[in-house]
Design a protein that fits this description.
With about 70 residues, the chain is mostly helical. Helices cover about 85% and strands about 0% of the residues.
Length: about 70
C-alpha cells in the first residue's frame, strides 16, 4: 500500500470517527441537555468538514501519483 493510499484511508477513518463522536455528543446533549455537549458536537462536525476539504486538496495535489 502506498503512502498516498494509506493517507486517504487514514483521513477517511478520521472523518468517520469525527462524525461518530459528533453523533454521540449530540445523543448525550439530548439525554442530559448540557450545552457543552452541543458545542462538542459542533466542533466535531467542523473538524470532519475540515478533514474532507483537506482530503480533496490532498487528492488534487497528488493526482499524478499512483495508489499502488
Amino acid at each position: 500500500m502506498s503512502l498516498k493510499a494509506f493517507h486517504l484511508v487514514f483521513v477517511t477513518a478520521s472523518v468517520l470517527l469525527m462524525l461518530g463522536v459528533g453523533a454521540w455528543c449530540f445523543a448525550q446533549y439530548r439525554e442530559g441537555g448540557e450545552s457543552s455537549q452541543l458545542a462538542y458536537c459542533g466542533l466535531c462536525l467542523l473538524c470532519a468538514g475540515g478533514l474532507v476539504v483537506y482530503g480533496r486538496i490532498f487528492l488534487k495535489k497528488l493526482k499524478h501519483i499512483s495508489f499502488l
